[in-house]
Amino acid sequence: MPIPPEVTGDEIDADVRQELMSLPKGLAEDVSRNLVMVAQLIDDEPEKAYEYSRVALRLASRVAAVREAAGFAAYATQKYSEALAEFRAARRMSGGVELWPVMADCERGLGRPERALAMAGEPEVQKLDRAGQVEMRLVAAGARRDLGQLDAAIVTLQSPELASGAVHPWTARLRYAYADALLAAEREGEARDWFAKALEADKDGVTDASDRLAELDGIEFVDAFDDSDVEDVEDAEEDDSDVEDVVDVVDVEDDIDGVEDVEDVDGDDR
């Protein structure tokens, strides 16, 4: 796929750039530009991001950062088997554990929640940082819900991170997941409180907590114009154009009459 000429590899993360230094300079630049496109498109146009990730993968499949990017692009397009394979490859190359939660979520995507839960109990989880452990908790709660274990999902989400009043990048999503589980358990009052807390923490709009709150409060958002209003506006515009046409015809006729009057006067003078 063509890459816009203004896109350069300079935008790539420093750690990734370090990994790409093992490649010839020209090849490293090509790979980095494709990775930049993946990062730019993965949220809004995941299919395009996936195509760019495949190009980067063909160019540098032995670079862990490339395998990781390919994994996230496949994950964003719900190609969970492919994503899991790429994440496993990236983990083998890097030796890190940070991909463990998303690997477990791929197992959920493949319809294997039991495997996701088994991964939640592995020693790798203890090596995750705090953000990674919260992600693992979210995945485990989702797996419990997949299995119909709603009460267990609620308990799984109850944690010091949930109770804390501090706001972190993952706070809104954690509170939202807890609210959603409470609502599924028909604990509507508690769910509303937690959707409100999620909204309070959601400075970047990563959840639809405001919509869920409005739904619980019975608030409906109505478009300023419905279809009939649009039709009325179009009819009015057509009527206006018809009036303008009539006015134009009258103006032309007046101009012609004026010209004829002038000619008559000139004829009389002669």
TrEMBL record:
Top-level taxonomic group: Bacteria
Positions of the UniProt region annotated as Disordered: 227-270
InterPro entries linked to this entry: TPR-like_helical_dom_sf
Entries under Gene3D superfamilies matching the protein: Tetratricopeptide repeat domain (1.25.40.10)
Protein name stated in the entry: Tetratricopeptide TPR_4
Organism: Streptomyces narbonensis
Lineage, opening ranks: Bacteria, Bacillati, Actinomycetota, Actinomycetes, Kitasatosporales
